[in-house]
From TrEMBL, chains A, B:
Cited SUPFAM superfamilies: GntR ligand-binding domain-like, Winged helix' DNA-binding domain
HTH gntR-type domain: residues covered: 7-75
Tree of life domain: Bacteria
Signal sequence segment: none
Name recorded for this polypeptide: GntR family transcriptional regulator
DNA sequence: ACAAGATTATTTATCATATAAATTTAGCAC
DNA sequence: GTGCTAAATTTATATGATAAATAATCTTGT
């Protein structure tokens, strides 16, 4: 990858503004700046700023009107399923709740994807799934990255289910798992989930058993959900203990 | 709605180009035009064209590089879950296959949404769901639009499940159902599905029974899927009969 | 003939400036 | 105060120029 898209000034500004917006940097007290102010802030021309704002508009984050200026759209209009938006959202610190909601989403479509894969995956899809499982085995031996191989496994199944919408979710799984692992404090070398549980999914798909594939996948995600819930609870408890220590110090 | 966003020249061009792209108007033989050509084609300034292209880039449809020009991204990179992109895609004639894939997607998350709603919806959510069901009853009597009330029903449940990602899918449901109804040749006044089957979902949610809610919702979508599959088969048969009549005429 | 390096050409990226359009706000007559 | 007019503000559009990236072409030496 030579000229990463992020090098263009426009894209740098898009990502910077995008992060600021989802972080809630702008509100009624601090409204979104007018074009001229943004130009000053970034030292860029109006063309660049307008193009950046238009990209964020296309993702549902902004809206502009003559004389009224540009403002943040209500959060329900953001395209959460846009890979950029999702990444900016999950990058916010302390967003375990959003991760829970995303995992609830995975709980809906990944078991279904496994079931569809069991019904109609092609030989090459099986090859890819088996290759991903092998990567996980290698990771367990320390010869591969556990996180990347786990992601590759889930992606291989989304690819195998022969549905373009499911395939779309690859980027989001990638983003969410990487953030998730950061939140749940997993470290390199620590297996994320057992090979055995993952293999159950593969076996069911190869046996052309949709029900079993679905159930095995569901078990994997429930496991992930429990890790997230746990760290969310830890987070809350930490906050509470800080709160009480402040209280007791008064 | 006073100044619909579509009135700006930029947005008109975005939608026009977006439709042309998903229709496959551009390919290796007919590559995407350079900026200057697009300006001529639309009689617009470079600023406007560049902003439109940037919006389509944000939706994953295009990519640009100096000297290399602008080109269509491979379809797997398109943000299918962007409401605009989905609409452009479904508007293409003869895209029952895409509708099938979308309905497979609904089959994953709508039953789950109903189950979540059963677990944790608030009193006002129940109110909204019941109101939507009432609209469907009125539609059956000819006092409301059957399609709109059906959509309102599904949306009310997505709103009730307390998950932002599920709520995101509202726009897509709206688009897909409207296109679906066009494809399956339903007419105004013809009920899309029975009130009784829809009421089963509501009853299960109000009884706080996630399993039953999920199953009742699944039944609704399976019904919709069968209608689509049927019209897809009709389409294929029609095409085949045209093909054979051409053949027999030779 | 051919490889290496320099030159040219093409296209997007960025900047700058000006005018138009939309719409709120302020001013003013009554 | 009410209703009309004028001014002010902000985005939308147009135009033209320069910079940057890189493919294509043209030297030049062997």
């Amino acid at each position: 990858m030579q000229n990463h898209s992020g090098r263009n000034l426009t894209y740098v500004i898009v990502h910077d503004l995008g992060r600021a917006i989802v972080k809630g940097h702008y509100d009624q007290h601090n409204p979104f700046p007018i074009e001229a102010a943004l130009c000053t802030q970034y030292g860029a021309s109006r063309s660049v700023l307008r193009e950046a704002v238009k990209m964020l508009t296309a993702k549902g984050l902004l809206r502009a009107r003559p004389r009224q200026g540009t403002w943040i759209e209500p959060e329900e209009n953001w395209n959460l399923l846009d890979p950029d938006v999702l990444q900016w959202l999950l990058e916010r610190k302390y967003s375990p709740q959003l991760l829970v909601e995303f995992t609830e989403m995975r709980l809906a479509f990944e078991p279904m994807a496994a079931a569809l894969a069991a019904q109609r995956c092609q030989p090459e899809d099986i090859q890819n799934i088996l290759a991903a499982l092998d990567r996980m085995r290698e990771a367990e031996k320390g010869n591969d990255d556990p996180l990347s191989s786990d992601i590759a496994f889930h992606v291989s199944i989304l690819n195998a289910c022969g549905n373009r919408f499911y395939a779309q979710l690859k980027g989001m799984i990638n983003t969410a798992l990487r953030i998730s692992i950061r939140l749940t404090n997993q470290r390199k070398g620590v297996p994320l989930a057992s090979i055995r549980d993952h293999k159950k999914v593969v076996d069911a798909i190869m046996a052309r058993d949709p029900e079993a594939a679905s159930e095995a996948m569901r078990a994997l995600i429930v496991e992930a959900m429990m890790l997230i819930q746990q760290s969310k609870a830890d987070e809350l408890q930490k906050a509470a203990s800080i709160g009480s220590s402040i209280k007791s110090a008064q």
